[in-house]
Write a sequence for this structure.
């Protein structure tokens, strides 16, 4: 031990330091380790705790949500029941409405079918009538057509018959003309042959020829003479014919001229007739116009008369009004006159002015005299009015003074016990207001005087 | 004869006193109701009477006494608003009596009016009435039911509606021994606000009574029952009773609701009866019905005019009828308009037209024939010389082709007219073209 103690002593200071150091280090390490372990442990614990808290939180939230869900479910179930009932009711109503509409639709369809059927029937009826009418018209048309055809064919036949008749006639005439022609030609041939034979028979013997020549000459001269005669006759006849023709043409011309003149005359007559009609129309038009104007004038006259009548009535009314006004004015004037008289009287009474007799004695001439008197009267009127007002005021003042005096007198009488003679009444002076004020003043003095008198 | 005025007498009248005969006739006129004297008079006196008789005399008195003449003309002109004498055989008496009876029937309220009124008139007019055109039939009076609030919602569950039976024709048709035409329609005119659909329908019981009545009427030539909501059942019932009817020539069931079953019944009627005209326009006949009718056509049949306008027979039915025409030699008029036909039917018809020589009038309007159908028709018409009318409007056939069709038809018509004219008068030489 002591070695160790010595060693330890020997070491102690150093080793102790070192040991301490070591121990401190170890302790530090230990503490550090412990701390680390603690830290780790704590971390683990923390993590565990965190996990636990997370899990717990999830659990809590789940539980909370389930509880809420349950509550919600019950709520919703109640809602479902209510809304189901509501929807069922609505569906029932809608079904009802649909059925009603279906019924209406069927009714409407039936009605339209009914109406269409009756419409169809009416149309069929109308169609049948139209077709009947068409048939009748067709028949009429056919009948008319047949009539026309028959009439045309009969006319045609008639015309053919006429035509053939005429043709036959013409043919017969042509035939007769041909025959005539042939006869004439035959005669001519005969005569020519006779002549030739005569010439031939009489050409050989000269005497016979001479005699014959003489005969011929005589006959020829006879023939020539007769020819000439004939020619003369023909010429005369031609001249006569020409004369006749001239005469006829002249007559024709005359008739034509006469016709023209007649036409002209007719035209003139027509023209004159037209003119006459025109004139008549004009005359009637004028007459109508004049009648119209006359009636218009009459109307105007009547209206003028009425207007004048109206005016007259108006004037009469106005005259009446004016007369009334005049009379009113007259009355007023009379009133004024009376007032003026009164004023004058008053004036005469109070002022001893020379009376204006002229206007007073000439009342009917008041209105006609000049405006000077009126102005004068007016002045007097105003004066009178003012005086009256002043008098009234004076009267009221006097009455007041009277009352006051009576009061005073009463007082005095109460004080005096004596008969007191009333104040001598004097005529109120017709002076303006300041006089009344002075009078008051004098009234008080009079009361004083009365006092001193008694 | 002149009369002098006597100035002192204020009651003097200038008119000449009528002769005694005229005075007597006046008295006869005034007392005609009590004492109808007519037969013993001369023709001039009868004329006089007829012009002056009061128009308010009861029909019972006048119908048996007065013959056709001015009296009935006056009656018609005064009492009837619009009348066409040619429809009633140009007889004023007949027209007046027929209209009178029609009016009574039209105003007959089934449980209210006394049927005796009808019978009275019938006994008087039975000799003259040949045609009845009844345009309305009244229903029994129904009291208005109390309205409750529920009614508006209950409309689709139909309330029980009391049967609305109309006039019973049994009492009438037996007695009308000369009746040749009967036109009926179950409707009410001017119903105003009281409208109800059952006023426009005939009930089953109506149908029964009508069928029995028709069977009893032996002289009927034309029976027309239109726009009365007649369906297959009622049609079958009526046809059953009309089977082997001795004189029925024309049957008109247009604007009803007849379907295939009814059409089949009618086709049986075609084979057994001697019908000349059959009008079934605006019904609900489809292919099967058309095939039945076609079968009847191809057998021995006297039908001259067939109208199937506005049904639904379609191409099958159209082809069936076209094929039936190959064997048929009586049909003159055929109307197949508005039946949803197409060019297939047009081609079938064209094939038939090349061989058929009796068909004169063909109507294929309002079908979708298109150009193919038009061409086929043009080709057929150029070979057919009897057909006079071929109506193809509203069929989508080109204008050009319809023009060609018209031209061919015109040529046919002209040639027929010419042959007619040639037969009439050989001398006529005019020519139109």
């Amino acid at each position: 031990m002591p070695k160790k103690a010595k060693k330890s002593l020997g070491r102690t200071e150093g080793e102790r330091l070192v040991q301490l150091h070591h121990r401190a280090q170890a302790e530090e390490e230990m503490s550090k380790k412990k701390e680390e372990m603690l830290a780790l442990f704590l971390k683990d614990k923390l993590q565990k705790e965190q996990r636990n808290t997370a899990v717990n939180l999830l659990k809590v939230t789940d539980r909370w949500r389930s509880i809420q869900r349950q509550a919600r479910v019950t709520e919703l179930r109640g809602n479902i029941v209510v809304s189901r009932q509501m929807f069922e009711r609505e569906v029932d109503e809608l079904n009802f409405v649909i059925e009603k509409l279906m019924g209406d639709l069927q009714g409407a369809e039936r009605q339209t079918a009914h109406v269409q059927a009756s419409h169809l029937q009416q149309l069929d009826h109308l169609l049948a009538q139209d077709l009947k009418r068409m048939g009748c018209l067709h028949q009429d048309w056919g009948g008319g057509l047949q009539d026309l055809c028959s009439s045309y064919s009969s006319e045609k036949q008639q015309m053919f018959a006429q035509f053939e008749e005429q043709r036959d006639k013409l043919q017969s005439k042509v035939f007769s003309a041909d025959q005539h022609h042939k006869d004439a030609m035959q005669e001519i041939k005969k005569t020519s042959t006779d002549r030739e034979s005569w010439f031939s028979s009489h050409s050989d013997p000269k005497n016979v020829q001479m005699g014959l020549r003489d005969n011929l000459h005589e006959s020829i001269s006879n023939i020539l003479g007769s020819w000439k005669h004939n020619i003369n006759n023909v010429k005369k006849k031609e001249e006569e014919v020409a004369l006749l023709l001239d005469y006829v043409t002249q007559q024709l011309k005359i008739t034509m001229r006469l016709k023209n003149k007649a036409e002209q005359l007719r035209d003139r007559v027509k023209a004159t007739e037209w003119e006459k009609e025109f004139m008549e129309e004009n005359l009637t038009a004028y007459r109508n116009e004049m009648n119209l104007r006359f009636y218009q004038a009459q109307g105007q006259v009547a209206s003028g008369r009425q207007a004048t009548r109206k005016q007259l009535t108006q004037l009469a009314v106005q005259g009446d009004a004016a007369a009334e006004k005049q009379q009113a004015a007259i009355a007023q004037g009379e009133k004024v006159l009376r007032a003026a008289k009164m004023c004058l009287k008053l004036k005469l009474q109070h002022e001893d002015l020379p009376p204006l007799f002229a206007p007073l004695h000439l009342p009917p001439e008041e209105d006609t005299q000049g405006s000077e008197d009126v102005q004068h009267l007016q002045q007097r009127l105003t004066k009178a009015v003012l005086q009256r007002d002043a008098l009234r005021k004076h009267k009221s003042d006097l009455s007041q003074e009277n009352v006051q005096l009576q009061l005073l007198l009463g007082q005095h009488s109460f004080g005096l016990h004596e008969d007191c003679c009333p104040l001598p009444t004097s005529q109120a002076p017709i002076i303006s207001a300041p006089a009344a004020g002075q009078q008051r003043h004098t009234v008080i003095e009079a009361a004083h005087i009365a006092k001193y008198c008694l | 004869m002149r009369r002098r005025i006597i100035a002192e007498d204020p009651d003097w009248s200038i008119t000449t006193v009528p002769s005694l005969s005229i005075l007597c006739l006046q008295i006869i006129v005034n007392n005609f109701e009590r004492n109808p004297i007519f037969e013993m008079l001369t023709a001039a006196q009868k004329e006089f009477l007829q012009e002056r008789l009061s128009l308010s005399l009861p029909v019972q008195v006048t119908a048996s006494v007065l013959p056709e003449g001015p009296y009935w003309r006056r009656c018609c002109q005064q009492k009837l608003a619009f009348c066409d004498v040619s429809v009633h055989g140009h007889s004023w008496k007949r027209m007046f009596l027929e209209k009178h009876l029609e009016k009574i029937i039209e105003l007959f309220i089934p449980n209210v009016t006394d049927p005796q009124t009808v019978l009275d008139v019938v006994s008087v007019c039975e000799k003259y009435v040949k045609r009845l055109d009844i345009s309305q039939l009244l229903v029994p009076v129904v009291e208005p039911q109390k309205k409750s609030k529920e009614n508006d919602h209950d409309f689709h569950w139909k309330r029980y509606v009391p049967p609305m039976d109309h006039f019973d024709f049994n009492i009438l048709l037996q007695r009308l021994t000369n009746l040749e035409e009967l036109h009926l329609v179950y409707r009410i005119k001017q119903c105003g606000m009281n409208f109800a659909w059952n006023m426009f329908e005939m009930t089953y019981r109506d149908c029964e009574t009508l069928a029995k009545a028709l069977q009893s009427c032996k002289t009927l030539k034309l029976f027309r029952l239109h726009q009365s909501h007649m369906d297959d059942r009622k049609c079958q019932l009526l046809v059953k009773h009309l089977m082997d009817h001795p004189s029925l020539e024309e049957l008109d069931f247009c604007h009803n609701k007849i379907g295939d079953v009814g059409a089949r019944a009618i086709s049986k009627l075609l084979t057994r009866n001697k019908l000349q005209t059959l009008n079934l326009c605006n019904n609900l006949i489809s292919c099967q019905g058309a095939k039945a009718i076609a079968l009847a056509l191809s057998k021995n049949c006297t039908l001259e005019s067939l109208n199937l306008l506005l049904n639904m027979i379609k191409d099958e039915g159209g082809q069936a009828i076209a094929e039936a025409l190959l064997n048929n030699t009586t049909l003159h008029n055929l109307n197949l308009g508005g039946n949803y036909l197409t060019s297939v039917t047009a081609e079938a018809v064209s094939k038939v037209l090349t061989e058929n020589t009796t068909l004169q009038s063909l109507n294929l309007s309002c079908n979708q024939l298109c150009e193919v159908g038009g061409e086929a028709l043009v080709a057929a018409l150029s070979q057919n010389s009897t057909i006079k009318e071929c109506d193809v409007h509203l069929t989508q056939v080109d204008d050009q082709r319809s023009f060609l069709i018209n031209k061919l038809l015109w040529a046919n018509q002209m040639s027929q007219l010419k042959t007619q004219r040639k037969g009439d008068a050989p001398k006529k030489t005019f020519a139109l073209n």
